[in-house]
Design brief:
Length: about 350
């Protein structure tokens, strides 16, 4: 029998939350999930619509709603907390929802979790550690659980703050929490504001892909299925108070990734444009997941990035109706906010 039978998943209608819900429903038949999601522009109820009603319940609501959170927490054995404002570019245009959801929302949840002594897993990002240099001599440097917190953007600063809240609640109140910090995810259901789906759907819409700055910034890609499998393992077997880094040694610079997308979609590899750089743009992320792999039974399985990318392109091609209605609005926002 699975250790936790009733799990509350915040942000379960977003990209990673959806993949987590779908993973648990397939892999762990005795578990029931309640999804608490505000359905912001990034959440989509359709993502969960085909799942069995007796195992997945969607509650449309805000993690800042203390009364609702209290009620749900009473009925829950464990929480996996994905809900967040997640896009760096948006945080540069208007940081306020990031403060509200990422900081205050996490506060509301951990207060309720400690009240009812509920197991809590906090999903976070490698961006809390800031960035690594790009020069070749620093290539062996990677983030570890001991890396210094040094966030660059309003988004990553609020995620860093939320991690520190969780750590303090563990120490001061005995909250039964773990934290995971993970690198850039890719795969199905990712919002089209993000780099990989934005470029795939640009190409499908006859819009030139856009590269910020010189395109040399490096991201450490992990397939979303590997991420959610790692979260499950931490929830079941992680040590309370620990921070776990999840990564798949997937470092690539943005230009290389874009050229792979163009090639896979049958376009000339130079058919894109350079645009203004992101303010404060982090140079390089790289995760050292050794400690997680030594202490838990988790290994990334999607080690062929090109195959995972091809599968992701196929998904956006086969699910045009899922993203098409948002495309014009997202591109209009980019045009307005990145002048
Ligand atoms: P996303 O933007 O796709 O989804 C976020 C979800 O949270 C949406 O469904 C949205 O409706 C919901 N939400 C937002 N504010 C809410 C609120 N106040 N109350 C309830 N629900 C709310 O994000 P994602 O990419 O799936 O990221 C999920 C989590 O994983 C975030 O905490 C993010 O920081 C973290 N993370 C993301 C990545 C990545 O590469 N995408 C990597 C590491 C960690
Ligand atoms: O590292 C984990 C983080 O990865 C998560 O915490 C964030 O929630 C997630 O959004 C992601 O952050 P990034 O800022 O790295 O992801 P994004 O997809 O926005 O951009 C990836 C890289 O591509 C980054 O260097 C900026 C660049 N970029 C992005 C867009 C949208 C472009 O060159 N062109 C674009 O159009």
């Amino acid at each position: 029998m699975t250790k936790y039978q009733n799990i509350l998943v915040t942000g379960g209608a977003g990209f990673i939350g959806t993949n987590f819900v779908r993973y648990v429903i397939t892999e762990h038949p005795d578990v029931k999930l309640t999804v608490l999601d505000k359905l912001t522009y990034a959440g989509n109820a359709e993502n969960l619509a085909d799942l069995p009603d007796d195992r997945v319940t969607l509650i449309v609501g805000d993690i800042n709603d203390a009364q609702l959170v209290d009620k749900l927490m009473r009925e829950t054995d464990a929480v996996v907390h994905f809900a967040a404002e997640s896009h760096n570019d948006n945080s540069l245009t208007d940081p306020s929802p990031f403060m509200q959801t990422n900081l205050m929302g996490t506060f509301t949840l951990i207060e309720a979790a400690r009240r009812y002594d509920v197991r809590f897993h906090h999903v976070s990002t490698d961006e809390v550690y800031g960035d690594l240099p790009l020069d070749e001599t620093s290539r062996n440097e990677k983030f570890t659980p001991l890396s210094r917190y040094n966030p660059s953007s309003p988004y990553s600063a609020t995620k860093a703050g939320s991690d520190l809240l969780v750590r303090a609640w563990v120490r001061s109140f005995g909250l039964k929490a773990t934290i995971s910090n993970t690198s850039n995810n890719y795969g199905p259901y990712q919002h089209i504001e993000k780099f990989i789906p934005r470029q795939i759907t640009n190409i499908m819409s006859g819009i030139k892909p856009k590269i910020y700055g010189n395109g040399r910034n490096i991201r450490d890609w992990i397939h979303v299925t590997d991420h959610v499998a790692g979260i499950w393992e931490i929830l079941m077997h992680g040590t309370i108070g620990e921070t776990y880094l999840l990564g798949a040694n997937g470092e690539q610079d943005n230009l290389t990734v874009l050229k792979k997308i163009l090639q896979a979609m049958g376009k000339p590899v130079d058919d894109f444009e350079f645009v203004k750089d992101r303010a404060g743009h982090d140079l390089r992320y790289a995760i050292d997941a050794t400690r997680t792999q030594e202490t838990l039974n988790w290994q990334p399985k999607y080690l062929d990035f090109d195959a995972g990318l091809k599968q992701t392109i196929d998904w956006y091609q086969q699910n045009q109706a899922w993203w098409e209605k948002d495309k014009a609005k997202i591109e209009a926002n980019y045009a307005k906010n990145r002048q």
